[in-house]
Amino acid sequence: MTILVSLSGVKKLMIHYKIIKKVGEIYFRNMENNQENKGKMKDDGRFKRKPIEFIIDDNGCFVCTSHYASSEESGGHIRYWFDKKVSVMHKFIYNELFGEVPEGLVVRHTCDNPKCINPEHLILGTQGDNVRDKVERNRQAKGEKVHTSKLTEEHVLEILKDKSSTNADLGRKYGVIADAISKIRLGITWKHVNRETV
C-alpha cells in the first residue's frame, strides 16, 4: 500500500510523515512486477526501503537526516539508491505525493535548501527556471568554486594589480587564454572579487 495524501497544509503533511515513521518504511509504487526486486519485497509485495527521517528547521524545511547528501559542489541534494541507480530524495517525495514528474520538467525548491524534502517547498519547472532561480538568488558557483577554474581569487587580484603586462603575457603566466585575462580586467568575469583593494 502506498500512502498518498492531498496536501492542504502542514497538518496533513505531518500526518503523512507520522504514518511513514510508524510504518517504518517507504513503499515504492509499481515494483510488484519487477523480478529483480522480489528478494527485497515484503510478503505482501511492498518494496522495503530505509525509513526517511528529518528535522524541521526554522524555515519549515524538512531537512532529511537519514540519507546522505551529495557534496556542496554537486548541489548538496539528498541521495538514495533505487533500482540500481542514485536518485534525489526531493524528486522521490514529489513523485510519491503528486505523481510522476512530466518529461522536460524538474522538481525545484522554493526554499533554496537542497536537503529539504518538504513537499510544500517543491514545485515543478524547467531546468532553465532552476538555473534562473540559482542566479537570481546568488547561489551559483563563482570564481575558484567553479570546478573548471584555473585561477584563484589571489591570481585575479594579482592580474588586476599588474598594469604593465599584456593580456597574452598574463595568460601564459597563469595558463589561460588572453581573452580570459581581458574579461577579468574589464569586469566581465570574476565580478565578485573586491576590486576596491586593487
UniProtKB/TrEMBL annotation:
<dbReference type="InterPro" id="IPR044930">
    <property type="entry name" value="Homing_endonuclease_His-Me"/>
</dbReference>
<keyword id="KW-0540">Nuclease</keyword>
<protein>
    <submittedName>
        <fullName>HNH endonuclease</fullName>
    </submittedName>
</protein>
<dbReference type="Pfam" id="PF13392">
    <property type="entry name" value="HNH_3"/>
</dbReference>
<dbReference type="InterPro" id="IPR044925">
    <property type="entry name" value="His-Me_finger_sf"/>
</dbReference>
<keyword id="KW-0378">Hydrolase</keyword>
<dbReference type="InterPro" id="IPR003615">
    <property type="entry name" value="HNH_nuc"/>
</dbReference>
<dbReference type="GO" id="GO:0004519">
    <property type="term" value="F:endonuclease activity"/>
</dbReference>
<feature type="domain" description="HNH nuclease">
    <location>
        <begin position="90"/>
        <end position="132"/>
    </location>
</feature>
<keyword id="KW-0255">Endonuclease</keyword>
